[in-house]
Specification:
The complex is a heterodimer of chains A (294) and B (527). Chain A has a single domain (2-14, 46-278), classed as P-loop containing nucleotide triphosphate hydrolases (Rossmann fold, 3-Layer(aba) Sandwich), CATH 3.40.50.300. In chain A, the strands form two sheets. In chain A, strands 6-7-8-3-9-10 form a six-stranded mixed beta sheet, sandwiched between helices. A four-stranded antiparallel beta sheet of chain A has the order 2-1-4-5. Chain A has 294 residues and is an alpha/beta fold. Chain A is built from ten helices and ten strands. Chain B folds into two domains: 2-261, no CATH class; 288-525, no CATH class. Chain B has helices spanning 2-19, 21-49, 53-77, 97-108, 112-128, 133-166, 170-211, 218-227, 231-261, 287-304, 306-329, 336-350, 355-359, 364-369, 373-403, 409-433, 453-470, 472-483, 489-525. In chain B, helix 1 (2-19) packs across helix 4 (97-108), helix 3 (53-77) runs antiparallel to helix 5 (112-128) and helix 10 packs across helix 15. At the A-B interface, helix 4 and helix 5 of A face helix 10, helix 14 and helix 19 of B.
């Protein structure tokens, strides 16, 4: 039963995805718009355009005039070592951290100039930020939907779909404070999905998530991309990025070291090898000679 | 062990000071205050040594009891102002609690308040000097016991509070404690008010006699008994005093033992409830719905998050103490009762001047959703008003009844509402502009972020000053009503109600606009 219902849920969810974003961007839509397909306007080919992003923390230059284009309809992987500026970049790209300089365009809308127009297009899963954990799982999704001004019946339907799809139904009445790390990740992902955004930006979405849930999430994201959505995700796990993504960017020291389609970037080699090349990989030279069981 | 922990404590203190200039300034001010108080303490002790034995004994016992109550209560309410060396930080080292516990006590006594308390305890020996060598020796031994009791009391009460408030029953217990505290103040007010200042003083010797056999007064009663030649009582009380120290150390050791292996867990049996947020209905939701969602979420935190209760308790402490003091001193007309509601209302409203910081990084949900700032602000105000307004009105009526000044009810209520609106309106702006670190959700409500003293001082001083200025009209009217013509009570009520509402609305709008413009900057400061 578990597997079947999960697939159903995922499919049901993807169906919801085909609706245009029901968000307050447009003057409160008079009806839930169940039938009208989005006007097939020529979509800009770039879903997320970052230009000259700079962020300084005191003496440290975390992001160093970074440029990046993320094509619409791609599954885009962002990789880089610890402290490369991945989270800082993604935070600035999603309106959670004000850049010192540079622009962010989401489907052609300047995020930092017109946040009210751009934010409805975005679904965000930040890394290392808390959620309101005195709410139950179900309440948190409802809360996210209400904050975005969605109709209540739509929220209710999607909330139940999301809880089923992400296998959180059993925990839907439990306070998020009592969730495990992986469950918190999943409920936050559900909050990012509830308004059916066009662009999903997920920082480390698979961290602490069990293999079964990771599989479900991968399937949901793949269907989302198949329906025309765009996904940006960051990860430390090269194999996962290689398996999931069609485009990648390697970030190091606050700059883009390489970007393009997966095949272009890895240029015939393993992504991991290219990663070491680009970063001028250092092997384990300084070993801990004394580290052996005494 | 003692030396190591003390060195660690001093090192942490030094590093903390080098991180923030404000801490050095505060430390300097604290030290200056303590030093400037020394002559007063010495003078008091000299003066007291010239008094009758009964006066000496009862005043010292009362001083000692107040001192101990302070050490028991204040560290809890001051949000763990000094939590650099706590037992839990030693958990991974596998230490023997019987050696660690005393070391922690010694380390904790390396603070200005502790050193000052030690000085006060020793100064009491001056009083008993004139009664001969034996009495002086008893006084010295008792002074040391008194000091040890104070330092231990702070440790025990902090550990106890941490344990209680992080448990699943925290909400109920803290709620009950708050209610009990408020209820306890009322009969005290009535009792002391009916006795008057002299009547109260008359009772002191009898109270002191009883206190001398409790942890609060044993160490202070012993030399007094010795001075009066009651040697069996003196020895008994001295033994009792040191017995209490031993008992305290035993309790503290057990607490350390437990904290090392079984830290208080915030995760109890999982709590289940149905979705109370969505409600039924279809059609597009508006900013009003989002506002209500924020209000409901805030209210959930008020009811279930120990951090909110702890901050509320420390905010309410001051007004209750002031009301108590005023009613004891018995100012004409303005007895504590009439001021109770205004003081509480002002404290509760102003108390939210750091409201956003209590969301912590969870505030990203509002930023990411593009929630209009005005909805964010209004939601928080609604949640607070939902419980605070009935409380304030109740206190105003209760206060008028206590003081038996029904003619002043309108003035009392007017000042209360004016202060509430002004304080909360200012808070809605200052919590956007001047956030300072608050304990994180799920953390001990008594933990403080190091390196935040300057920010919190600035935010508190500024929000207090602005609130005070904005509340000048209603305060003046209140004062005129009380001192000149009670007929102005209606005007005071109207001005308080309208003025409070206007300032509050302005605070919501201005805070909301600022939030729209600086949401991301604010989020970056909530980490």
């Amino acid at each position: 039963m578990g597997d079947g219902s999960r697939t159903d849920g995922a499919r049901g969810y993807a169906h919801v995805m085909t609706k245009p974003p029901t968000t307050p961007s447009a003057p409160p839509s008079s009806a839930p718009v169940p039938t009208a397909e989005p006007p097939a306007a020529p979509e800009p080919p770039v879903a997320l355009r970052l230009r000259g992003l700079v962020k300084r923390f005191g003496e440290t230059l975390a992001v160093d005039s970074l440029d990046l284009d993320i094509p619409a309809g791609s599954m885009f992987g962002v990789v880089g070592p610890n402290g490369a500026g991945k989270t800082t970049t993604l935070s600035m790209a999603t309106g959670l951290l004000a850049p010192d300089a540079g622009q962010v365009h989401v489907y052609g809308v300047d995020l930092w100039r017109e946040p009210a127009k751009a934010k409805p297009l975005l679904g965000v899963l930040p890394d290392g930020l808390r959620v309101f954990d005195r709410l139950t799982g179900a309440e948190l999704i409802s809360y996210a939907g209400l904050l975005r001004g969605m109709p209540r019946d739509v929220i209710a339907e999607r909330r139940d779909d999301l809880l089923t799809a992400l296998d959180l139904h059993a925990a839907s009445k439990t306070l998020v404070a009592d969730f495990s790390a992986g469950m918190s990740k999943k409920i936050t992902l559900a909050c990012a999905l509830v308004h059916a955004p066009r662009l999903l930006v997920l920082d480390e979405p698979f961290e602490a998530v069990d293999p079964v849930s990771a599989g479900v999430i991968r399937r949901i994201l793949a269907e989302f991309v198949a329906q025309g959505g765009t996904v940006v995700l960051s990860s430390h796990v090269m194999a996962l990025v290689e398996r999931m993504c069609d485009h990648v960017a390697v970030i190091g020291a606050g700059r883009v070291l390489a970007t393009g389609s997966l095949d272009d970037v890895r240029a015939g080699a393993e992504l991991e090898e290219r990663f070491f090349d680009l970063l001028g990989a250092r092997g384990p030279e300084a070993g801990l000679a004394w580290l052996r069981p005494s | 062990m003692v030396a190591t922990v003390v060195r660690l404590r001093l090192l942490l203190l030094r590093n903390m000071m080098s991180r923030e200039i404000w801490r050095v300034i505060l430390f300097g001010l604290g030290a200056l205050w303590a030093v400037s108080m020394l002559p007063a303490v010495l003078g008091g002790a000299r003066w007291l040594s010239g008094q009758e034995t009964t006066v000496q004994s009862s005043s010292l016992v009362v001083v000692g009891a107040v001192l101990l109550v302070g050490w028991f209560v204040l560290p809890v309410l001051m949000f763990g102002a000094d939590e650099t060396v706590t037992p839990r930080k030693f958990a991974t080292l596998g230490l023997d609690p019987r050696r660690l516990a005393p070391a922690l006590v010694v380390a904790a006594s390396m603070s200005i308040p502790a050193v000052f308390t030690g000085f006060v305890c020793l100064a009491s020996v001056i009083v008993w000097r004139g009664y001969g060598l034996a009495t002086t020796v008893v006084a010295l031994a008792a002074a040391l016991a008194a000091f040890a009791t104070c330092v231990l009391a702070a440790r025990v009460s902090t550990a106890l509070a941490t344990r209680l408030l992080s448990s699943r029953r925290a909400r109920e217990l803290a709620g009950v404690a708050a209610v009990v505290a408020v209820i306890a103040v009322v009969p005290l007010l009535i009792g002391l008010g009916s006795l008057g200042l002299e009547g109260t003083l008359e009772r002191v010797p009898r109270v002191a006699a009883v206190l001398s056999y409790t942890p609060f007064g044993a160490a202070w009663g012993a030399p007094a008994a010795a001075a009066q030649g009651a040697w069996s009582a003196a020895i008994g009380q001295l033994l009792l005093a040191w017995g209490f120290v031993g008992l305290g150390l035993l309790v503290w050791t057990r607490q350390v033992d437990r904290l090392l292996v079984d830290p208080p867990s915030t995760v109890g049996a999982s709590r289940r409830r149905a979705d109370a947020f969505l409600g039924a209905g279809s059609g597009p939701t508006t900013t009003a719905h989002a506002t209500l969602a924020v209000a409901r979420r805030s209210l959930r935190y008020w009811l279930g998050d120990p951090r909110y209760l702890a901050s509320l308790a420390s905010t309410l402490l001051m007004p209750l103490l002031i009301a108590l003091l005023l009613s004891v001193v018995g100012l004409e007309a303005v007895s504590g009762g009439v001021l109770l509601a205004p003081l509480v209302a002002g404290a509760v409203g102003w108390g939210r001047h750091n409201d956003t910081a209590f969301d912590g990084t969870a505030f990203w949900m509002h930023v990411s959703a593009g929630l209009p700032g005005i909805a964010d602000r209004a939601g928080r105000v609604l949640a607070l008003a939902a419980w605070a307004l009935p409380l304030v009105v109740g206190l105003a009526v209760g206060g008028a009844w206590l003081a038996d000044r029904w003619d002043l009810l309108g003035a009392s209520l007017g000042l209360a509402l004016g202060l509430f609106g002004a304080g909360l309106g200012v808070a809605m702006v200052s919590s956007v502009l001047l956030p300072y670190p608050a304990p994180r959700a799920g953390e001990s409500p008594f933990s403080t972020e190091t390196g935040a003293v300057g920010a919190s001082l600035v935010a508190q001083l500024l929000s207090t000053a602005v609130t005070g200025v904005l509340a000048v009209p209603v305060t003046v009217l209140f004062w005129l009503t009380v001192t000149r013509s009670p007929g102005l009570a209606g005007v005071t009520l109207a001005v308080g109600l309208l003025g409070g509402a206007v300032v509050l609305a302005a605070g919501i709008v201005l805070g909301g606009r600022l939030l729209d413009a600086r949401g991301a900057q604010l989020l970056a400061r909530l980490h």
